[in-house]
Design a protein that fits this description.
Two copies of one chain form a homodimer. The first copy, chain A, is α/β, with parallel strands linked by helices. Chain A has twelve helices and twelve strands. The first copy, chain A, has a four-stranded mixed β-sheet with strand order 3-4-11-12, with helices on both faces. Chain A is elongated and about 70 Å long. In chain A, about 55% of the residues are buried. About 5% of the residues of chain A have low confidence. At the A-B interface, helix 6, helix 9 and strand 10 of A face helix 6, helix 9 and strand 10 of B.
């Protein structure tokens, strides 16, 4: 839902004509600034901009480029200021997770230190939901909704196929935080329903304990569907599964490979002795606009809008936060707030222990109450004559370069 | 969409009150007959029966049990007749792929040979779309629609992330036939769109050719999203990827493991030298009711209805087929026909060579015209307060056993 936030930024900025003389998009995050690779977003059709709400991923592109500390290398910073000055950029909105907020914070401090008047406001977005200072992050409600449906459906498959395929493992994203895996727990409305077991990185994972959990589940319901974070760690804090292509050894001495899903599938087949399937939805889970949460998309838009309003009001060096209001899921409401970019950049919000049960293998009602409001409603979708979604693609009208020089970044 | 066909059978049978004195469901396919494990479907609420249209997988369960030839072992057959006679079962509707049609055919012949008056009619269902005698199979349109959306969305992810993650591979189901992988090709509306490459089992796969294809694609569009059947074979007819957990060696002598998706990811990283992701939607692809094709669900229902009408008219030993009418996708219409169960059981329909381009790495307009009509419309979905789908589960009221004995099958 990065695009929904971008849409909120662009449409809100257009409402402040006296303040904004133009709206530029940066190609691939901060890389676009460094390379002076900018798009004129006012030359996009209003239909395209509006369709960004219904378009997954990031229409402006993205990067994994981390700015060095100002003390370590000034070159990138000088270049950023050069490009800002050349295009008279006085507002900087940056959407992303804590690395992105780190970038926004550094850019903000740079402008202030250089006496260059510019507002820098961050907009949170990460499906991982691990940003500090905000109740939740845009992107999370949609991955929760989609994966909840996927594990529920995979559960029906196992329910129908249990005479041959008794188990299934769904590997979810989440290297450090278990928010995503935990969200799938909502799909279990009754003990019959999948997922029967949920594992997160915040709780040390033991293969022995897992085997016992699966056996108990098979005894109880005759089948077992597991949701597991890709980032599960053992009691030493080491990942239980390494990247596909390398090897790890489980506590039984088996050589295992691949991701968590494949590892757990192999453990079930070897140590429980029943057939197991595994599903790894990978990047499909973070772009599943076809079953995105309306609440999430609306809040992403709202966050983009709020960033512009705050900046127009003179706010800088802050990230928009989402604040939960109302008592319990039935009365859920959300308003925006602000937090220091530095606090977000330095923070990380893990799943509270109270959101998982004592055994550490499923969620509690506290988790359910937290996530359910974020999953409600279905986002708008345009569908073409071929039955498939229709997404926007920016025309990407290049802004004429003004600095008169190219720039080489030091990292790839 | 097995459940949609079951719904069609049940609701149509209820309309012929003079003919049907009851409607029984068999738990886990033919196993339910052998174990005399039958449900009284007239005791289900009409709401539950109607919700079967919106429920993935098989509410009655399924099996992979294949009846032996009558000459080889009569025990199963005698038991089936015993159960049929005990419950006065005079109509037998069996939903599934060619193994299921083999079962239906054997049961039909058994009844005829034994002078037991019973109609046996098959209803096609396989996401693999590989049944002979029918233009297409219920189940296929929905997997095509869902995977088309998934690869389109994964394509947007790669488009946004190409500065770090330039490639992605989506592994689809399809051990022998490439129908499912080929369907994803529809998502490529313009050369920018994913999938950029599509591989099917009908065309011998070469790692060298694949590496060249990926390099050319990276040169052309700067990123590459691949859809590949799990059942890809080399020019010797051997699977290029073996089951997860075992090993195979590619033509470059690398040791590879896991499924096709993981193998191709490793090839891209090793031989093209860029980062690659892989997605394996596994059982989620065949149960994705949250984005199922309305056309497919409606046709599945129609096929169930047609089976009952045919049986009432005295037809036996046939499978309902779907016949395409109209000239081209714009005028698509579908009616039902009938084919001999034996012809379906013995047949297999692979993807025609003309549905793939000359290079064997993407689909042609002929494939697009074939599959697009099957993907149109979105199936009804009930959604709960938690934002997730609501599916039916049968109450499964057991029918009192009448044979007075239990039965042990010889296979697991």
């Amino acid at each position: 839902v990065i695009n929904a936030s971008a849409c909120g930024v662009i449409q809100e900025a257009a409402r402040h004509e006296g303040v904004f003389t133009g709206i530029l998009g940066s190609h691939n995050g901060i890389l676009g600034v460094l390379h002076e690779d900018l798009f004129d977003l006012t030359r996009e059709s209003s239909r395209t901009i509006d369709d960004l709400r219904r378009t997954p991923a990031s229409a402006l592109g993205s990067c994994r480029y981390k700015l060095k500390d100002l003390d370590a290398d000034r070159a990138d910073y000088e270049r950023i200021l050069e490009v800002f000055r050349a295009h008279d950029i006085r507002f900087f909105f940056y959407i992303g997770g804590n690395d992105s907020m780190d970038t926004a914070d550094k850019v903000s401090k740079l402008a202030a230190d250089s006496g260059y008047a510019m507002a820098a406001v961050g907009v949170p977005k990460t499906i991982d939901n691990d940003l500090a200072e905000t109740d939740h992050c845009p992107g999370y409600g949609s991955v929760a909704k989609y994966l909840g449906a996927a594990v529920m459906e995979a559960g029906r498959d196992t329910e129908a196929m249990y005479t041959t395929d008794s188990c299934a493992v769904l590997e979810t994203m989440g290297r450090h935080a278990g928010w995503i895996a935990a969200a799938t727990g909502v799909a279990q409305r009754t003990p019959e329903d999948a997922p029967h077991l949920v594992y997160v990185p915040e709780i040390a994972f033991s293969i022995e304990g897992f085997v016992a959990d699966v056996k108990a589940c098979l005894d109880r319901v005759g089948r077992c569907v597991v949701a597991a974070s890709e980032g599960l760690v053992n009691d030493q804090g080491a990942y239980i599964a390494t990247e596909a292509g390398s090897f790890s050894t489980d506590s039984f001495g088996h050589t295992q490979m691949g991701g968590v899903g494949e590892l757990l599938k192999n453990v079930v087949e070897a140590d429980v002795g029943v057939k197991c399937r595994y599903n790894k939805l990978g990047t499909c889970q973070r772009t599943a606009m076809h079953f995105a949460s309306r609440t999430d998309v609306d809040e992403a838009y709202l966050a983009g809008q709020a960033a512009v309003r705050a900046a127009v009001d003179g706010v800088t060096d802050k990230m928009v936060t989402l604040l939960r209001e109302g008592d319990g899921p039935a009365n859920y409401a959300c308003r925006t707030g602000l937090a220091d970019l530095r606090a977000v950049a330095n923070g990380e919000k893990l799943l509270p222990r109270s959101f998982m049960n004592e055994a550490g293998n499923h969620i509690t009602d506290a988790m359910r109450d937290y996530v359910v409001p974020l999953m409600r409603g279905q986002a708008d979708l345009r569908v073409g004559e071929d039955g498939l979604p229709v997404f926007a693609r920016l025309a990407r009208r290049a802004v004429k370069q003004k600095t008169g020089r190219s720039y080489s970044i030091t990292q790839p």
